[in-house]
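[Meeting: bench + compute handoff]

Bench side (C.D.) handed over the final construct sequence. Compute side (W.E.) agreed to return the predicted structure before the next meeting so the bench team could plan truncations. Sequence as handed over:
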Amino acid sequence: MTGTAGRLLALLGLLQSRADWSGAELAARLDVTDRTVRNDVARLRDLGYPVDAVRGPGGRYRLGVGGKLPPLVLDDEEAVAIAVGLRAAGAVAGIEESSARALGKLEHVLPDRLRRQVAALRDATAAGPENTSSNVEDPAVDPALLTELAAAIRDHQGLRFWYRGEQPREVEPVRLVAWQRRWYLVGRDVASGEWQPFRVDWLELRVPGGRRFVPTPPPFDLTEFVVREVARTGWAVHARVLVRAPAEVVLARINPAVGTVEPRDEASCVLVTGGDSLETVAVWIGMLGLDFSVDGPPGLVEHLGVLSRRYAAATGA
């Protein structure tokens, strides 16, 4: 950007991106003198933007509270990144309309050149069906519930909820993790002291909530924990599959999203896996390309029998 107007927008963008700047830092980023920075800050104040300053060598500046919010200042890559993110969010059940509205507002406030780029990206792209790994519809995301859970995490406020219709739970929440188009709340169960992931679409908050707590850092990586525990307890259908191959062979063939592998002996292992339907689990097992046996759950055994007869009939066997 060139000229005073462009420089003012660049200055606003810098003030938005960080809480505090020295005059020398702003001058260096804008390639101007300290005097020009002071003059530009005065112009912003004249336009109604609350820029606070601390006197001293070079001075320090920050956007103050109250007054007008500065305009959205994005460079080309940032604008495209937000547009792509909003298009992707539009595929998440429950927030499709919100994502479309947000994308429309983004285009409305962007300069003409960037608005044309974002509009071109929107018009030139299309999305196929997102749920290609399951024959079960994605659960709808409740933005209000996600907001409430995030606030509890931020404020170290305990939560009380019913989970899958079972007994009430009280949990100290620490993180929300999005994985496989599902949302999981990770927290420590107050009664047992155990860490657990809870599918957000399976919980119903109770009022009043739990007690405030001092957070305990979890002794593991939260995302890896969710992947591992969901494979064990977080699916609608679970199975333990005896695979007639060494554990390292199975591990080399599966995505971590499929499940976990427990070594049994040099020639076999147990794959702990699951999914939101019997059909999904059966497909994942078949994609291993290895001999296996399954003794439960009964519905999965029955479905594998149906597939066996269907494939045999397809080949005339």
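W.E. noted at the follow-up: Residues 186 and 222 are 8 Å apart (CA to CA). C.D. will use this when planning the next construct.
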